[in-house]
Write a structure and sequence with these properties.
The chain is of the alpha/beta class and about 100 residues long. About 30% of the residues lie in helices and about 25% in strands. The protein has a 4-stranded parallel sheet with strand order 3-2-1-4.
Length: about 100
């Protein structure tokens, strides 16, 4: 049974195409998250046409996927995701980041 306890972090990432960048960013994110940090990752697709939506359908926990019917832009996608986020802290990220440990 899934935990009802709120995660420490809700990580929100709006997406529009650029599937390879998204995959690289998510790999770097998962590699740099502290092991003891509870989190959810909310991916918001803004109408991608490059296979991103098909790929998103393959993801399970800790991912939550939202599909926008039309492109809401960065602010609109973040706003939509923030409404369902359960974390104590919100992290708003772009899908073209590569995260590293300090």
């Amino acid at each position: 049974m899934p935990s009802r306890t709120a995660p420490e972090f809700s990580i929100i990432v709006p997406l529009f195409n650029c599937l390879e960048l998204t995959r690289a960013m998510l790999a770097s994110l998962q590699a740099t998250l502290p092991r003891d940090a509870t989190h959810e990752i909310i991916l918001v697709d803004d109408g991608s046409t490059d296979g991103t939506r098909d790929w998103l359908r393959t993801l399970g926990a800790p991912f939550h996927v939202l599909l926008n019917e039309r492109n809401l832009g960065f602010a609109g996608a973040n706003d939509r995701a923030a409404r369902i986020a359960r974390g104590t802290h919100l992290l708003l990220l772009n899908n073209d980041l590569v995260l590293t440990r300090r």
